[in-house]
Specification:
The complex is a heterodimer. By secondary structure, chain A is of the alpha/beta class. In chain A, 35% of the residues lie in helices and 18% in strands. In chain A, a hairpin with a 3-residue loop joins strand 14 and strand 15. By secondary structure, chain B is α/β, with parallel strands linked by helices. Classes of the chains: A alpha/beta, B alpha/beta. The interface between A and B is large, with 93 and 89 residues. Strand 5 of chain A pairs antiparallel with strand 5 of chain B, so a sheet runs across the interface.
Chain lengths: 432, 413
């Protein structure tokens, strides 16, 4: 429960002034937005490894070429794929913001906060296979390890590498709260700005979990879809015939900036971060109660911080993973928090198109919220065909919608029982 | 008015002891707890010595079903968290779950569990892992489990910044307190002593290959040869001041300042990181606490034990405090480097020094290569404020200023 006086005490406001995205179906901010507003799905049969023995064999993969994306041979050699995504998204976001991080003062006042659920596990697994001789040896032979294996063990490398790229000297952190990592990293960054610990934060999340161990881990609990015969339509959040989520990969980075700092330099402002809250359900590492209580408490809190009413919400970017448990859980949470208004607000799950990239997706969804406000377009839920009686809201089926978007709410829900919510709102709508 | 964050409970599971008292006895007596690795056969590894939590038996402390579902790292965290809550006298069953949070660091996750499942996946024809791999290996496993165990439904977080994480968790716990939480479980533990995780650590090029437990880890010493890895750490109960006072809690100290910075460049071999950015981190912590360097009673440094890092750390301390401007003491040589668990354990040491007004003598630097004012032997001394420093792999710097809580004459609430 937030101390009600905190909102009054928090004089510093945070705005979003730059966006960078690396997502399946769109390796830049613009291509990402074109993909998801066209309702195109980027899910397919897994090509990155031999998935033929796994229950779920579909994923949303990025056709990512690090050299074409501008990374140097050195960066490509030393960085895991998820760090490469992060570097590219951060560079795009900074360029978009027009920020010039040349002065020492600004570099001291700039931080990096990145989320990642599983960090370098793909590289860790690849190295493991070599040093253990395909799992034969418990006492692995370190002589066969690659030179950057320590960076793979400690995911702090993600934020460190971005900080190094841009010569940042402020607070640097990786936040790893499973599938809410993206929202929580941006929330952490927002708090740094609010509290005066930084004026600018390069904030987002990245994950590239597509590897055998990830596939096997989710197979073991039947969380991912077995719908392998129709990969393009395999991610079906809120649809009656959903069958689990589709793994994805990607990154998004936002430039968070203290409002007056942004105004002074006439920065392009996408929106304001008006609320962030996190709750734990204290219930189960993977299970969700159908009542959506704790997610709803997080939503209530963001609405209080934003000083908004339910009818002010223009768009809900849902967690929408496409498991029955999740879809019921969050539908209940939206109704609990927003009451009757929940039925009138377009809700969508972009995971229907770009899959579930674990920790990264929360940041990609916040990028989608900022772009929705920027363009007054709500991206759809693809593959929605059949109403589920338990999910009776407006899920924006299949086709994007042009509507005024002044306030966008996004939620995330993750293993460990974490529930997070964040609200972005158009700045003009509140500063008059 | 900012809501102030104080620490009211300590739980320790570390090579130095299975309780805060045992840890304190170890550091004040200067007992070296390093030994040859026993958790697995390390004879084929260049690193032979580690700081292990010996005789750790989870069976009588945690429900067997839960033991099966979690890694050694989480087991030790369960035990440390129970201890810390008991030490603080916090009864979570009487609390509003919304006001209880868990903000802990994690540098590398559930290593042993993860390796076992990787082995199963890659060595067996059916290519499967067990049902708990998805909840035991990832970095949030421990915080998730603790939030369930203690019904902590407030905002929780998992911070990953290698060895600075234990300190960063205090700063973020204080932010979380400022926003409304009453009690936050902070700190962190680490279990990096599985064969594969150790192989990964070798990649940092910073581990000591000395096979003599008494000589392997010698921070700031002329014979420094790298660090010895260790496991364990500490859980710290961070509490809103008014909440602690209202229930008559004994306060160890206040989280008065913190200051993360980053080098903004890769740490190239031989450079030892940026003394300038590390010094700036210390100054940020002091400035936030509104305390002058001359008023700081003690510094507990990162003490990596790699000569160039020791030198740059000494340079940063000199820069902020002046030559021989502050007593310095370090105990990582007794336990090994526990990554984020190590910075959390240094916080425990600092709090115990403030409570007892005793400064434990420094360990490992009999023949100092760095000109710092090392506390040579354990002594009674005024300890009202302690600066703790930590550095994380590839450019992370962090400092926390802890101050003894002194009730104001009147009206403090």
């Amino acid at each position: 429960m937030t101390d009600p006086s905190f909102t009054e005490r928090a004089l510093r406001r945070t705005v979003v002034t730059g966006i960078g995205v690396v997502a399946p179906g769109g390796l830049t901010r613009k291509d990402f937005w074109s993909c998801i507003t066209a309702g195109r799905t980027a899910t397919r049969r897994i090509t990155m490894f031999d998935a033929s023995t796994f229950r779920s064999q579909v994923a949303a993969e990025c056709d990512f070429d690090p050299a074409a994306a501008g990374l140097s041979p050195r960066d490509i050699r030393r960085s895991d794929r998820y760090i490469q995504f992060g570097l590219v998204a951060a560079a795009e976001a900074l360029a978009d913001s027009g920020l010039d991080l040349d002065g020492e003062w600004l570099r001291n006042r700039t931080g990096v906060v990145m989320g990642s659920a599983v960090g370098g596990t793909t590289a860790l697994e690849q190295e493991y296979v070599v040093v253990s001789n395909h799992g034969r040896e418990w006492l692995v032979d370190h002589d066969y390890a690659g030179p950057f294996i320590y960076q793979a063990l400690v995911p702090s490398s993600l934020a460190a590498d971005i900080a190094v790229h841009h010569g940042v000297h402020g607070p640097v952190q990786v936040v790893s709260t499973g599938c809410t990592s993206g929202i929580d990293a941006i929330g952490y960054a927002h708090q740094l700005v609010q509290d005066g610990e930084a004026d600018v934060v390069i904030a987002g999340a990245s994950d590239s979990p597509l590897s055998p161990v990830t596939a096997a881990s989710f197979d073991a609990i039947k969380a991912t879809t077995p719908n392998n015969h129709d990969p393009e339509h395999a991610s079906r959040p809120f649809d009656r015939d959903r069958s689990g989520f589709v793994l994805g990969e990607g990154a998004a980075v936002l430039i968070l900036e203290e409002l007056s700092h942004a105004l002074r330099r006439n920065a392009p402002i996408y929106c304001e971060v008006s609320g962030y809250a996190a709750r734990s359900n204290g219930f189960h590492m993977t299970g969700l109660r159908p009542d959506g209580l704790e997610m709803s408490l997080a939503i209530d809190e963001t609405m209080r911080q934003s000083q908004l009413n339910p009818t002010d919400v223009s768009y809900i970017c849902a967690h929408g993973s496409g498991t029955r448990q999740n879809d019921r859980h969050e539908t209940a949470a939206f109704k609990r928090s927003l009451g009757q208004a929940a039925y009138d607000i377009p809700v969508s799950s972009i995971k229907s198109m770009i899959g579930h990239s674990l920790g990264a997706i929360g940041a990609i969804e916040m990028a989608a919220c900022a772009l929705a406000i920027n363009t007054n377009v709500v991206p759809p839920t693809a593959n929605w065909a059949n109403r589920d009686p338990e999910c009776d809201l407006d899920y924006t089926p299949n086709t994007a919608r042009e509507v005024p978007v002044n306030v966008a709410l996004s939620v995330g829900s993750g293993f460990g029982g974490f529930q997070s919510a964040m609200v972005f709102r158009r700045l003009a709508a509140v500063s008059s | 008015m900012t809501r102030r964050a104080v620490i009211t409970g300590i739980g320790v599971v570390a090579p130095s002891g299975m309780t805060a008292d045992e840890h304190w006895n170890t550091v004040t007596a200067g007992k070296n707890k390093l030994d040859l690795i026993s958790l697995f056969d390390a004879s084929g590894y260049p690193v032979k010595v580690a700081g292990e939590v010996r005789d750790f038996d989870v069976t009588d402390q945690v429900d067997g079903r839960l033991v099966v579902q979690t890694d050694r790292w989480t087991w030790m965290s369960f035990v440390a968290a129970e201890q810390a809550l008991a030490d603080a006298g916090v009864d979570v069953s009487t609390m509003d779950p919304d006001e209880l949070s868990v903000v802990m660091a994690s540098s590398s996750g559930g290593n042993q569990f993860g390796q076992r499942e990787l082995q199963r996946l890659w060595s067996q024809p059916d290519r499967t892992v067990g049902a708990y791999q998805s909840i035991a290996w990832f970095y949030a496993a421990t915080v998730g489990q603790l939030s369930i165990r203690h019904q902590a439904k407030g905002p929780s977080s998992v911070l990953v910044s290698e060895s600075t994480g234990g300190l960063e968790s205090l700063g973020h716990a204080a932010r979380t307190i400022n926003r409304g939480s009453s009690v936050v479980l902070a700190g962190g533990l680490e279990a990096p002593l599985s064969p594969y995780a150790l192989a990964c650590q070798l990649g940092s090029g910073r581990l000591s290959t000395c096979s003599d437990p008494l000589r392997a880890y010698r921070p700031f010493d002329a014979d420094a040869t790298g660090y010895v890895p260790g496991e364990g750490g500490a859980v710290l109960i961070v509490e809103e001041l008014g909440h602690a006072l209202a229930r008559g809690a004994e306060i160890y100290g206040e989280v008065a300042g913190w200051g993360p910075t980053h080098d903004g460049q890769h740490t190239v071999a031989g450079s030892g990181g940026s003394a300038r950015q590390y010094a700036r981190s210390m100054r940020l912590a002091l400035a936030q606490a509104r305390i002058e360097p001359s008023d700081v009673d003690l510094v507990i440094p990162d003490a990596l034990g790699v000569p160039e890092f020791d030198r740059s750390e000494a340079e940063a301390i000199d820069d902020v405090f002046g030559t021989h401007g502050v007593p310095v003491t370090s105990h990582k040589a007794l336990t090994g480097r526990l990554y984020q668990g190590g910075s959390a354990l240094d916080v425990a040491t600092a709090l115990l020094a403030m409570r007892t007004q005793v400064v434990p003598g420094t360990a490992g630097s009999d023949n100092p290569a760095c000109d710092l004012d090392f506390v040579r032997t354990t002594r009674e001394s005024t300890v009202d404020s302690v600066l703790i420093g930590a550095r994380g792999f590839d450019g992370y710097n962090s400092s926390v200023l802890l101050r003894r809580y002194v009730p104001a004459e009147t009206g403090e609430k």
